[in-house]
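Minutes, project check-in

Agenda point 3 was the complex the collaborators sent over. CS summarized: two entities, 520 residues total, and the question is how they sit relative to each other. Sequences were read into the notes so everyone works from the same version.
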Amino acid sequence: MIMELTQEQKDMLEGRHGNAVKKSMSILVALGEIFGAKGLIPVTSVQISGVSYDNLGDAGLEFLDEMAKDGKTRIKTTLNPAGMDMENWKALGIDPEFARKQKMVIEAFEKMGVEATCTCTPYFIGNKPNFGDHIAWGESSAVTYANSVLGAKTNKEGGPSSIASALTGFTAEYGLHLDENRQAHFVAEVRAKVDNPMLFGALGNVIGRVAKGRIPLITGIEKATTEDLKALSASIVTYGGAPMFHIEGITPNKTEVPKERVAVEQEDIDNAVKEMNDAEDAEFIFLGCPHCSIKEMEKIAELLNGKNVKKELWIGVARPIKRIADEKGYSKIIEVSGAKIACDTCHVVAPLKGRFTSIATNSAKGIFYGRGKNNFKTIFRTLEDCIKLAVGE
Amino acid sequence: MKGRKIFGGKVEGEALVSKEGISFYGGVDPDTGVVTEKGHPLEGQSVSGKVLVFPVGKGSTVGSYTIYRLKKNGKAPLAIINKECETVVAVGAIISEIPCVDQIDTDKIKAGEKLRINADEGTVEHA
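CS then shared the predicted structure for the full assembly.
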């Protein structure tokens, strides 16, 4: 063994804290050794990916049940979206058998002490680590947001390794936990107009493809909202980048300025947008990938006010954000229009294959998985234009 | 050939070799073991019961669960040999208890040849 373990960690590995902890420790130690970690470090927060029954299947559920037998979370742990709205699944047309299995998945997590938040934006609902915190997060968009925008430190964890961190409180110290690995590898000079979440998604597509697993220092961006940064985080990692970026003057991490420079011209952004559009019309429209902020809920309500949707429109949002939207009256306006608010889930993880043939969304990540997982033709437009499409304007 | 143990075990079997990376999530059917990624060199072939040889894993972290599903469905590869093992495949092999060795020059392994794997020692030999 290369890694040095404390007595507590050795006890965990040898099974003195139960089977789930033993299995967890063996995952963390194996990862640590593969990546040359010196040891394991404590983490303060966990976000678990791998929640939709559509992705887990019976085998994944069995794995979770096994871990839930004697495994308990030691730190704050939240959950990625599930395959359906846990309360309102019938309105979304989910099969009852799927719903039964999905509930069993959530029950296994709850038994472990996980907060069944079911969102890809844990940072909107109280799982928001501080600058410099070591954390163990899954969900690539949230990982990228945490590293880049919040300045917390995490690798892109999978389901089992994030569970392993939740049940032990540790992660292996390698990759993005080490400051030397958080430096930019190249400068991406943006010389294009990028001023809404859709275009930040297009920018993520362009830079992600160039990055091929490396970290960019993005220059030429004057202003970016939370929603813009959320969209960029989701896109850049989907299209091939590392789960981390720097934006000069905007993100909080320090970096050396690398020599390699890549220009991002208006033409590159236009081409990326064009490439993500291959449908004439869309049967299904999804907004909220990653899940909507309260500001986006307000905007959607404003645009839908007094109108009726003519197509299936889903708004993906974390349940606590929906509750705020309820209080402010946004939810009612949205629902009166005929649009559906889908908490706990999204079009990437819900069992939608075969239900629709085309999708419109303002999310570049949503386009990638709409195509790859569900075989949809795609329309990539701004939030405003997606709403227009939904109401038939 | 000598590499590094990711998960231990001893098996013998026939090599199924890909020059390209494999994304288990969305790229391999968890119920049948058949590679479904469009345009992949192994598209249409089953990984089940083979010594699966490929340079590196790619794609979504849900892939670890796909490997686990293959194992539970009796469709998993006998062993996995990588040039460079990344997290998704490593975790998949560990939770599914599939012998896995990396740091092997996968270009030197031919499709269809018989291999003897001792993952505990990290060795891969022609059988």
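Noted in discussion: The radius of gyration of chain B is 13 Å.
Follow-up: revisit at the next meeting once the mutant set is ready.
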